[in-house]
Amino acid sequence: MHIPHGFLSPEIAIGGYAVAAAACAAAVRQANRTLSERQVPLLGVMAAFVFAAQMLNFTIPGGTSGHFLGALMVAVLLGPLTSCLVMAVVLTIQCLGFADGGLDALGANILNMGVIAGAACYYVFVLLRKLLPNTKAGFSASVAIAAWFSVVSSSALCAVELWLSGTFALAVALPLMVGVHSLIGLGEAAITVAVITVLVETRPDLVKAWAPSEGRTHADEMGSSA
Amino acid sequence: MKRNAKFIIAGLGISLLLAFFVSPLASSFPDGLEKVLEKLAPGGRIEQTEHRPVAPLPDYGFPGVGGERLSTGLAGIIGTILVFAAVFFLGKALAGGKSSAPIERKRD
């Protein structure tokens, strides 16, 4: 869902950069306060996984493909702002190193796939956690729905940005974007649930948002296990 | 720490394997957004994409390497390592020697 070079108007491109910069600044401030040395390699691994997994396009009907985003997965594992920062690094390297997404659209791409799909949709996940039963099934369902929604909401915002840039009519583009990404979102949900389930089984201490019933608190944080 | 070391090696290993062996098999159909742009914005703005900025490994290919599979696989490996390194050094700078600081609280 990387907006290529030359599709955004200057206003929207600059607006995207402004929001992305504000979110990244907040993420940096927070990391400055709370990120500990031993978490750093784990952060790197998760970012590397997101990059590699984003290369794996899967075919969906209609001669189209989709790929994993990973923003919601990182948010569930590391927190909303950290997800935003990780996505910003991944997207910047994809843009500068691989010509994936335009440099003019980098801000908007960070806004769509980091700020919205990662940070904002984390709160969709939090809300779902409150609404659904506090069980493993409820947790997985919250992850799945939030992951699906992260792709769909991100694609909807992308359509709005392109519309505001005068690229196409919203009435036509929005249903198309949301339609195709509703399918891609199913892949996002499946991969996110699969990865997080494996981690909950093997390293529950790494899954920030999963608090098992024996009253584990967030004092037992990622990387704090001996 | 030993568990974390294991996790890091396993995680990086899986990522590199995916990037090298699986990414060349990925679907080459346009992704959701590209498809919509093809349909709704052919010509016009799309022509500007011809002037896309130069990148060292454009479209996840390693220039000069024959064979698309190897080319994509190499680009994947380089990207995966690059992302790891970038986040690692950024993280080191931000952590700044803090050993066991409280992490971001769940805000619900």
Short structural description:
The complex is a heterodimer of chains A (226) and B (108). Chain A is mostly helical and 226 residues long.
What would you say this structure looks like, in words?
Chain A is mainly α. Chain A contains 7 helices and 2 strands; from the N terminus they run ααββααααα. The longest helix of chain A is centred in the last third of the chain and has 33 residues, at 170-202. Chain A starts with 9 loop residues before the first helix and ends in a 24-residue tail after the last helix. Residues 213-226 of chain A have low confidence and may be disordered. By secondary structure, chain B is mainly α. In chain B, α1 (2-22) runs antiparallel to α3. Residues 103-108 of chain B have low confidence and may be disordered. Chains A and B meet through α1, α2, β1, β2 and α4 of A and α1, α2 and α3 of B.
Strand coverage percent of chain A = under 5%
The residue-averaged pLDDT of chain A reads: 92
Helix content of chain A: 55-70%
Number of helices of chain B: 3
**Which protein chains are joined by the largest interface, and how many residues does each one contribute?**
A-B, 91 and 77 residues
Tell me, rounded to a whole number, the average pLDDT of chain B: 83
Largest sheet of chain B: none
**From N to C, what is the helix and strand string of chain B?**
HHH
Unreliably modeled segments of chain B: 103-108
> Strand order, biggest sheet of chain A?
1-2
- Low-pLDDT regions of chain A: 213-226
N- and C-termini, Cα separation of chain A: 39 Å
Structural class based on helices, strands and sheet pairing of chain B = mainly alpha
How many DSSP-defined strands of chain B?
0
From the N-terminal CA to the C-terminal CA of chain B, the straight-line distance is 30 Å
| Overall helicity of chain B | 40-55%
Query: Structural class given helices, strands, pairing of chain A?
Result: mainly alpha
Total strand segments of chain A: 2
